[in-house]
Specification:
Chain A: One of its GO terms (molecular function) is structural constituent of ribosome. The complex is a heterotrimer of chains A (389), B (453) and C (104). Chain A is mainly alpha-helical and 389 residues long. Chain A contains 17 helices and seven strands. The longest helix of chain A has 33 residues. In chain B, strand 2 and strand 3 form a beta hairpin. Classes of the chains: A mainly alpha (389), B mainly alpha (453), C alpha+beta (104).
Chain lengths: 389, 453, 104
């Protein structure tokens, strides 16, 4: 391999400090040496000696490309994406810029959360004690991502206090290379990081169904869901109660068991609900409806919305507490003085229901008798399938 | 397992790797021709190309078991649209939706389903580590897992084929990440590291003998030392420190490595010297963290004391040089002094007085430079004991591969990431990073649709 | 015949796992018992370092037990073996067995 001489570039370890928001221009101007040295190196060729005899044509071509066209990829320019697509691109197109693979038109390098935005999320959730749902709508970040950010920032804080090693220069470099969503300045609108109301396509909706409906009847999303899941059409009185599919959302949040079932036994499944119920933020539809109904009463609508959110939050909180209490009731922890260990004692139930008629039921406590182990069979997953957090 | 993951130029296969060979292959890759080729041939070559990239470390049989023809997709919903209409508009007329201009009511871009063929592989731990930019190739990520540098939900996970569940938090040892993503050491640096290790080894054995003798000695000499240091000295050291900071900050990448290292080392020594003169240096230690917090405190104190004045003194270049030379020359002597005066605390009051005088001569910008140089010294230190070139800088050609897919949330500071959900397709985009276009993705999907086993 | 509440070893080599069973005293360890009333995993698990409250938590061992069945079998005269006595003592079903030096 020919000797590697670093050609033109930017100083990537130092530039982060130099381009710091405070006094970036002044510090850059105070660097006369940067430009002079880099121009010096520009003129240097990749290799001073002639190509060795043993080098193949492909290899020669590769180094030729790396030294000419490809040299832009050697080092990154802070704050700019540096993907292969920039070679082909002529005009300044932003969408084009974030495509890492020239052949793949449908994969984009999506922005990541900037450090400030991440801290802001943590601040709002942990210090201001806002609910994840509200922060998600405010900042335009998916609820799962918000939960993850809180977890990660908490972990980071603890590692900092413990003095564990961090990868700070690496983090800075990544945030320079990858597009980021910045935190909005005071008074500005926060740009949404990602779409927050994603509706997962349900497998039942994959099929095409011929379902004749009288033209006199309006066929809405609730009924379409029932058709897809094979449930009988609603009674007229029942259908009349539902003004808009989003009414159903409110009902289901209050009582998740109100969703009906189709089929029997192992084939039983819940009736497919309309999009208004299945999206992560059903309350946003309700808000839009309020806005449509009362276009001139913004304050009243906002007030209504905050009350609705509070109510739904309280319901969810109560449900979570109930589940937690039930789990704790089943578990007692004993920590004997003389032992190095704690003992977690869980309640189980030994009845005909758990063991089954022949005593070999899979729900019974303990390892089973009279059932062969599948741990050596082919195709069985032998590594852990989950890790408890 | 045989390593087939080489980036040979003659084969021209694209791999999950940041190597420059791979970059070149990626750049020159053209979809295989379809003219005069049977469907089987087309599907075969599409499958071969895409499997060379996706899960090349996974056996074909294992992958075939993982493959699922059903592909996850989502539609971003607009709350206003949902509120405006209960769906009857779409189903009205003859079921195709009525609209004013004869266009369909909802227009969406097509969902690229076939790009999602290899989505199940993105669940693998090694692939996720590579996607989170913690390793420079999927093979390297796999090695990290096998070597025990990866935890999942706080527990060590040694199986690269562990399938992450939504909500799983995985973390890689930051040192490994810095090694994987940083510049490799030059032979010069490797030699220095070797020497340092040897020196530390011999010192360790000596220290045991010397410890007692040294302690007694230091107590005697220390007091004399402090009396000797005149006020002028502290003033000069701060000046020198600043000069060093400036040169450290201004040095571009093109400065040759040894020279730059010399500068950095000189700066570190100068910092240590200033510290040895400041007050409350009880924790004056080799730990950079302690040094940094001390110095920033010192700087802040000075800044608040000093009157606001904004004159920037243009310093001639030669003055820098002489300053540098000066400090270099005396640094060796001073260093021993500093080491000796380690354990003192009260007697530093004098030295601080001297420092205050200095402070008024520094401008705001100079403070800034100093502070940033200090931050750099703390965060990205020169340390030959590391496995990567220090101070750390990203490896070459990394930026062309740097993207983080949406199904991961990564915290780079602690090298941890959360697998939020399975990758999904949405109108116009697919979340599985694949370098291939439609002409390869679709035949490859078709290949696996039919059971051939 | 004496009824015993005892442990039956399952699991693999170096990876023990016990069923807490009610069985005839003279029956084989691996024989089918009258009832399986719980399990005991003697391999301690370490709490993860992901949460603050786990910072100085001790490693723990997992027991599962059907208390009502255990009480019933104790009531009809089943005798716990020593290890099971220890586990049941922790669950508060029997008084802890006096150790040898307590007796003396």
């Amino acid at each position: 391999m020919p000797p590697r001489i670093q050609s033109r570039s930017v100083s990537n370890t130092l530039l982060p400090y130099l381009t710091a928001p405070s006094s970036s221009s002044s510090s850059l101007s105070s660097l006369p040496s940067l430009s002079s040295t880099s121009s010096q190196c520009l003129s240097r060729q990749f290799s001073a000696t002639a190509a060795p005899q043993g080098q193949t044509k492909l290899r020669r071509q590769m180094f030729e490309w790396l030294n000419n066209e490809g040299s832009v990829f050697k080092h990154h320019v802070p704050g700019e994406a540096n993907y292969l697509t920039r070679l082909k691109q002529r005009g300044p197109e932003t969408a084009e810029k974030s495509r890492p693979f020239p052949n793949n038109q449908s994969f984009f390098s999506e922005p990541i959360l900037s450090e400030e935005l991440r801290n802001e999320v943590y601040n709002r959730v942990v210090e201001q004690k806002k609910s994840v749902r509200i922060v998600s709508v405010e900042l335009g970040i998916d609820m799962k991502r918000i939960a993850a950010v809180v977890r990660l920032v908490e972990l980071e804080k603890r590692q900092r206090t413990q003095g564990k090693p961090l990868a700070l220069p690496y983090a800075r470099a990544i945030h320079e290379m990858v597009p980021t969503t910045p935190l909005a300045e005071k008074g500005e609108r926060q740009t949404y990081h990602e779409p927050i109301n994603d509706l997962p396509a349900h497998p039942l909706t994959g099929s095409q169904i011929f379902y004749p409906v009288p033209e006199s009847r309006s066929f809405n999303r609730v009924e379409a869901g029932r058709v897809f899941s094979g449930a009988p059409a609603m009674e007229h009185s029942e259908a009349a109660e539902i003004n808009h599919p989003s009414d159903l959302a409110e009902k289901i949040i209050e009582d998740p068991n109100s969703i009906g079932w189709v089929g029997k036994g192992a084939n039983a499944r819940q009736i497919l609900q309309p999009a208004d119920v299945r999206i992560p933020h059903p309350h946003m539809v309700a808000l839009e409806r309020d806005r449509l109904a009362n276009p001139n009463e913004r304050l009243a609508v906002a007030d209504l919305q905050s009350k609705r959110l509070e109510r739904q939050d309280a319901i969810e909180q109560a449900r979570r507490e109930r589940i937690q209490a039930r789990r704790e009731k089943k578990l007692t922890v004993v920590s004997p003085e003389e032992s190095r260990f704690d003992y977690r004692i869980k309640d189980t139930i030994y009845t005909k229901e758990t063991t089954g008629a022949d005593g070999r039921g899979s729900k019974a406590a303990g390892r089973r008798y009279g059932v062969p182990h599948r741990d050596r069979t082919r195709g069985e997953v032998k590594i852990p399938t989950r890790v408890e957090a | 397992m045989r390593n087939r993951a080489s980036n040979t130029l003659s084969k021209g296969k694209i791999r999950q790797s940041w190597s420059k060979y791979n970059l070149y292959n990626l750049q020159r890759f053209r979809s295989p021709p379809t003219a005069n080729r049977t469907f089987f041939q087309q599907k075969w070559s599409a499958k071969a190309a895409s499997r060379a990239y996706h899960g090349e470390q996974v056996r074909e049989r294992q992958w075939k078991r993982m493959f699922n023809h059903r592909i996850r997709s989502v539609i971003p919903m607009n709350a206003a649209d949902l509120a405006a209409d209960d769906g009857s508009l779409v189903s009205s007329g003859r079921g195709s939706g009525l609209d004013k201009d004869g266009k369909s009511a909802y227009q969406t871009r097509p969902i690229p389903y076939s790009h999602m063929t290899f989505a199940p592989l993105e669940r693998r731990l090694d692939v996720a580590i590579f996607r989170a930019l913690f390793a420079s190739s999927a093979r390297q990520a796999r090695q990290f897992v096998i070597h025990g540098a990866v935890t999942v939900n706080g527990q060590k996970m040694k199986h690269p084929s562990y399938l992450l569940n939504p909500g799983d938090l995985f973390q890689v040892d930051p040192d490994r990440v810095l090694y994987a993503t940083g510049h490799t050491k030059t032979s010069f640096e490797r030699r220095e590291g070797r020497l340092a290790r040897r020196k530390a080894k011999s010192q360790k054995s000596q220290e045991a003998e010397d410890a007692e003798a040294a302690e007694a000695e230091s107590k005697e000499t220390a007091k004399e030392d402090i009396k000797e240091t005149p006020k002028e000295d502290t003033k000069e050291t701060l000046k020198a420190l600043l000069a060093q900071a400036k040169s450290v900050m201004s040095a571009g990448k093109d400065t040759l490595a040894p020279q730059r290292k010399q500068e950095l080392r000189g700066f570190q020594q100068a910092v240590r010297r200033v510290l040895s003169r400041s007050e409350s240096s009880t924790i004056l230690a080799d730990s950079l963290e302690a040094q940094f917090s001390q110095l920033t405190l010192l700087l802040k104190a000075k800044r608040s004391e000093k009157p606001v004045k904004k004159e920037v003194k243009p310093r001639p270049e030669d003055a820098f040089a002489s300053d540098n030379g000066d400090t270099e020359a005396v640094s060796a002597k001073r260093d021993t002094e500093a080491a000796v005066s380690d354990k003192l605390s009260e007697a530093f009051a004098q030295a601080t007085l001297g420092n205050d005088v200095d402070a008024s001569e520094l401008s705001d910008e100079e403070f800034d430079t100093l502070q940033r140089a200090l931050t750099q010294m703390r965060d990205n230190p020169l340390d030959n004991s590391k496995t990567y070139s220090t101070p750390w800088q990203p490896r070459q050609y990394m930026s062309a591969f740097a993207f983080i897919p949406r199904y991961l949330e990564v915290n780079q500071n602690i090298c941890a990431a959360v697998y939020l959900r399975h990758p999904v397709a949405r109108p116009g985009s697919a979340e599985v990073p694949t370098p291939f276009g439609e002409s390869i993705a679709t035949p490859a999907y078709g290949w696996y649709l039919r059971r051939r086993w | 015949m004496v009824l015993r509440i005892r442990l039956a070893r399952f699991g693999n080599k170096h990876n023990p796992f016990f069923n807490i069973v009610v069985a005839q005293a003279r029956s084989a360890r691996g024989a089918k018992p009258l009832e399986v009333i719980g399990t005991y995993n003697p391999i301690p698990k370490r709490p993860t370092n992901l949460y603050d409250e786990n910072a100085e938590a001790r490693p723990y061992k997992e027991i599962s037990l059907d208390r009502s069945r255990a009480k019933y079998w104790l009531g009809v005269g089943a005798q716990p073996s020593d290890p099971v006595w220890k586990l049941m003592g922790m669950a508060g079903l029997v008084a802890p067995k006096p150790t040898t030096y307590d007796k003396a």
